[in-house]
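Please annotate the following for my students:
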Amino acid sequence: MVADLLHEALRMGDERGVRVVRRVHLHEDDFVELANLVHAHALTVGREGNSYGERIFTGILSWWQNVGSLSEEETGRLFKLRTDVCKWLALGQCRHSALPCPW
């Protein structure tokens, strides 16, 4: 599912003629689904933080590159999308709102 969403994001960027893909280039439902999948993955593989329930996860882009079989160029095009996902999650908008955000 993550791979499909990443490839769709790249396709949407191509369709809109942009090199760097942002949240605004995706359908909102696709963005929210991607962000929720990132959150679930981060909670699964992140390490314990200093506070109770805190999880620390780094490497979203490398995870995306691996799971999506993306080239370095494709991964680089998603850098700002990763930033948009992290900002959205930091605002606590994920569907697993009872779970702590890992950042």
